[in-house]
Amino acid sequence: MADLRSFARQLRHGETDAERVLWSKLRARRLLGLKFRRQALIGPYIADFACLEHKVVVELDGGHHAEPAQAAYDERRTQWLIDQGFRVLRFRDNEVLREPEAVLERIRQLCEGDPSSPSP
Q1: Largest CA distance in the chain
Q2: d(CA 66, CA 93)
């Protein structure tokens, strides 16, 4: 667990441009007054962003997530999170960089339980 915690700390210090943009919108309860954590430890995994109160995980995927081994790992991790009761949203990095407000709207809808929200 200490190694995972240390790795999460490293990830926070080496954030991508997309993570930086999204974190600037989520930090300090800027979205609906909700507490989001970045590089949050959840069981044996590290989630890019998590709102534990609403059991929402937001993952940002760079180009390496398209590689077969990484895609298989992501699928296993997503399924584990779902099995734990989390709802998982995945966005491509370029989606966050090009349309940050649309990304925030999808997160807001999921957190508010908006029935018109697209399925994650």
Answers
A1: 41
A2: 12
Instruction: Pull the structure tokens for residue 10.
Output: 């490293």
Strand bridging mode 56-61 / 87-92: parallel
Catalogue all structural domains in the chain, each as residue range(s) with its CATH number. Answer: 2-112 (3.40.960.10)
45-79 pLDDT, tens digit per residue, is: 999 999 999 999 999 988 665 677 888 999 999 99
Asked if pLDDT for residue 118 goes beyond 50, the answer is: no
User: Torsion-angle region of residue 35: left (phi > 0), alpha (psi -120 to 50) or beta?
Assistant: beta
- Which amino acid appears at position 65 of this protein? H
For residues 107 and 51, what is the distance between their CA atoms, to the nearest angstrom? 10
d(C-alpha 58, C-alpha 89), whole Å: 5
3 state SS of 115: coil
Distance between CA 46 and CA 7 in Å, rounded?
9
